[in-house]
Amino acid sequence: MNAPTGWRRREGTLARPLALSGHGLHTGRRVNVRILPVDADGPRGIVFRRMQGAGVLAELAVSPSLRRGQPLCTMLESANGVRVRTIEHLLASLLTCEIDRATVELDAEEVPILDGSAQPWIEAIHACGRSELPHAKRFIRVLRPVKIADGEGTRDERSISIEPSAAYEMAVRNDLKGFGALRWDGAVTPKSFAEEIAPSRSYGRVKWAIPAILAGYVRGMPILRGARLSCTAAIVGNRVLGGMRVPDEFVRHRVLDLVGDMAMAGAPLLGRVTALRPSHEMNYRLVAELLATRDAWEWAEFPA
Question: Which residues does UniProt mark as catalytic (predicted)?
Fold first, then answer.
């Protein structure tokens, strides 16, 4: 059987270490990140390693079991309370660049937001190169539909589902007052993600951001403290300050986040995801429900 179009048959890791620095979208704190290659005998998947000086605070293997609810981002938390937040853009980039095994070291709790998109990560990973490993690449083949829905039949309905498909596909709808109904429908491949999805930025209305930041300070929860025009598509009224970077940028960014959140499953999917107004919480609920429903999926490999 052939591997899905656009994807390699063997796992890969970085050809050399990658280093980037920036500030967190929510904490606003400066953070240094190193992504290290893993050899053929190393752990499978992506592992986050929180550093403090030369010491290791915790290692967190990417898994829905470590996910903790947090506004406007995806966060993992270890058993001893060490956190890594806003991981979705990096996970989407590693998945679609086919970096199947790597260790991500960071000296603060939040992955840097960079320009608000996945494009800087894609460019940095491509610059480092990919080293092929001897292991057959694994996919998660969806065997039967799984669906999560809230407010069905109401004006505020949100839903997300996955069903069997020979390829990784998404159909995402989102609506935003003043911008109408937005939709992206297509196959998720390394090429389509880099060209169509990765450049889309995090976005939000300025009138919502300021109260959220203040409420976060009151509650002791970091929310949008690092939000800047340099890393956010800021909406004022019915326009984006500086304009959109790509057509329908808002729904494409929903796709970006969805790819990153679904990457917590540990492999690309062979399934079609259909989402209406998806959120990080909805995305997590879908991937957790899929993995918990053991007859709804299986591992698939396509040896060379």
Answer: 280
Residue 292 carries which side chain, given as an amino acid letter?
A: A
Q: Is 23 annotated as ligand-binding?
A: no
Domain ranges of the chain: 10-301
Average pLDDT on 270-285 reads 97
Kindly name the residue from 23, 26, 126, 280 that is annotated as catalytic: 280
Strands of the sheet containing 55-61, edge to edge, are: 18-23, 30-37, 101-106, 45-52, 55-61
Q: Is 253 within any annotated ligand binding site? A: yes
C-alpha distances in Å from residue 184, one per residue of 14, 116, 117, 125, 272: 30, 19, 17, 25, 13
90 SS3 class: helix
Q: For 17-72, what is each residue's pLDDT tens digit?
A: 999 999 999 999 999 999 999 999 989 999 999 999 889 999 999 999 999 998 89
Question: Is 10-301 assigned to CATH 3.30.1700.10?
Answer: yes
280: annotated active-site residue = yes
What is the average per-residue pLDDT within 197-226? 92
State yes or no: 257 annotated in a binding site. Answer: yes
Lowest mean pLDDT segment, chosen from 178-182, 250-254, 274-278:
178-182
